[in-house]
Design goal:
By secondary structure, the protein is an alpha+beta fold. It is about 35% helix and about 25% strand. The protein has 2 helices and 2 strands. It has a two-stranded antiparallel sheet. The longest helix has 12 residues. Dimer of large and small chains. Belongs to the acetolactate synthase small subunit family.
């Protein structure tokens, strides 16, 4: 959901673990208050899996895909 604190909580997950977000794109999808965020981080495959798990625990995060 497009709430003011969501970006802060997501970036905090990366910062607390020492991961660098190399790119971030945020677009509001429609008028329902849902935004789409695409980010790129420098990490290993295992670290990415752990990060995805942490992101999925956030209440306002509806979906997480690892590419």
């Amino acid at each position: 959901h497009n709430e003011p604190s969501v970006l802060l909580r997501i970036s905090g997950i990366f910062a607390r673990r020492g991961y660098y977000i190399s790119s971030l794109h945020l677009n509001e999808r429609d008028t329902s208050g849902v935004s789409e965020m695409k980010l790129t981080a420098v990490c290993t495959e295992n670290e990415a899996t752990l990060l995805v798990g942490q992101l999925k625990k956030l209440i306002d995060v509806l979906q997480v895909n690892k590419l």
